[in-house]
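I'll show an entry:

:::
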Amino acid sequence: MKIDIINLDAKTVGSLDLADEVFGVEVRRDILARMVNYQLAKRRSGNHKTKQVWEVSGTTKKPYKQKGTGRARQGSLRSAQFRGGGVIFGPVVRSHAHDLPKKVRLLALRVALSAKAADGKLVVLEKAETSSPKTKELAARLAKMNLANALFIGGSELDTNFALASRNLPFIDVLPSQGANVYDILRRDTLVLTTDAVSALEARLK
């Protein structure tokens, strides 16, 4: 699969052959859904917590005697039926993460890249580098390229000026090649890969 390489001035500077086994696989929505659920579950903090009966502060004395009062028998004022009592079967601190086979995770990344390529939403950039960290200058260049909602994936190390200039732009994300993931690819309209990123992803996913 051949694609044009452009620069930040929206000019074509060459072409590149993309590997079909990375950018041309069948688009499977079920695999993408499994991977997104896996990523979002792993990100959840899981720190929601309610106090159970044994954790509530208060007396351990029996409120009143068992028989003869005409009221329902009670053993503790910390029980769930009393105000300020514990919660029965409430949430506890836990991890929401679940397992997903490594082969499925790698396949999901291939599918996400292929989906962008199939939709015509994949752009290959010569270099994600700017001479100045000014957001206004980068915004003007991105407007010329019609990129308002995009994820930029660079090489193993990001250009400092480009990262600084882009961080105040809404709907523009920048990641190094090793940080490429399905959720961030799908949440942005356009995927922009540098030539270094293409090489790194093909080496990782072939």
Remarks:
- Residues 50-90 form one domain.
- The longest strand covers residues 12-17.
- The two ends are 15 Å apart (CA to CA).
- The mean pLDDT is 95.
